[in-house]
Specification:
The chain is of the alpha+beta class. 41% of the residues lie in helices and 15% in strands. It has ten helices and seven strands.
């Protein structure tokens, strides 16, 4: 293979036997980097890996920075929206800009096409209705739906789901992996509207329910959005482990007996994991332990 032109420059000699000026030493093969940018990105990586918000001194220690330098870098990231800060605890966590970038990345590929083979497999295995959903801003949006193969299936009002992240399995599967302050922002526009007598309508109750979602690896909507409908959802992750959407399976309450429901839970988690793997996500990304 031919050497790159840049690497040949040092081998070129002038007639007097002198090297070309400026080439007295072998050039470094490593490209120059911007230290401050590298440090800022490292702080973002630390927040990605953290299971909760981190205080300034902990971030500085983990990043190997003095507190003043770390604070200035975080202030810049905070101003640009890549980092957010809890006004009560002063702890730092990933900002909304990260979510926006993740959503923008979705536009580089067709999530529906990538997920469809697994959605069809889930629909075939369970014979129940299957949904693929994402959060767009603060709205829950259904990207695809496969109808039940059985005579009695589940119909749903997709337009009514936009403000029902707290009451649906697809929504709760996504919300469970957001910081509490981000959950509050998602819910700030529409609050926690009641759809049925079983809808969770207080934030503390919702936060506790989301802890169960993280622990179990699936979200359960037990007639919380529609009377007589039970739904199981699980999160879809990308190559960085970030949740970018969710998949769910809905069935009439009359078919949601213990044995059948257990099988659906397993099938939904398997489907979410399989889609995640297609995106380069972790093998057991939807089944992470509760923080």
């Amino acid at each position: 293979m031919n050497k790159p032109i840049a690497n040949l420059a040092g081998a070129v000699r002038m007639g007097s036997g002198q090297r070309v000026p400026g080439d007295a030493a072998a050039p470094s093969k490593r490209p120059r980097t911007i230290q401050s940018l590298d440090r800022a990105l490292n702080l973002i990586d630390l927040l990605v890996a953290a299971k909760s918000e981190l205080p300034l001194n902990v971030l500085a220690t983990r990043a190997g920075l003095n507190v003043s330098t770390c604070h200035h870098l975080l202030a810049t990231l905070l101003r640009r929206g890549y980092v957010s800060q809890n006004p009560r605890t002063r702890g730092y966590f990933l900002g909304a800009r990260i979510t926006e970038l993740s959503n923008a990345r979705l536009k580089t590929f067709n999530l529906i096409d990538i997920a469809m083979p697994e959605l069809e497999r889930l629909n075939e295995v369970t014979s129940e209705s299957v949904h693929l959903a994402v959060m767009q801003g603060r709205a829950l949006v259904t990207l695809a739906k496969l109808n039940s193969r059985l005579p009695v299936g589940v119909g749903s009002d997709e337009t009514g789901k936009s403000n029902a992240a707290h009451a649906t399995a697809t929504g709760k599967a996504i919300l469970a992996w957001l910081p509490e302050i981000e959950i509050a922002r998602v819910l700030s526009d529409s609050g926690l509207p009641r759809f049925t007598g079983k809808t969770i309508c207080t934030q503390p109750e919702l936060i506790e329910n989301l802890r169960l979602v993280r622990r179990n690896g699936y979200a359960l909507d037990n007639e919380e959005f529609q009377p007589g409908v039970v739904c199981v959802g699980s999160a879809i992750r990308d190559h960085a482990g970030a949740v970018i959407g969710s998949v769910s399976c809905s069935m009439p309450k009359m078919r949601a007996r213990e044995r059948a429901l257990t099988q659906v839970k397993s099938a939904v988690k398997h489907c979410a994991t399989a889609i995640s793997q297609r995106l380069g996500g972790p093998k057991h990304g939807a089944e992470a332990a509760d923080a």
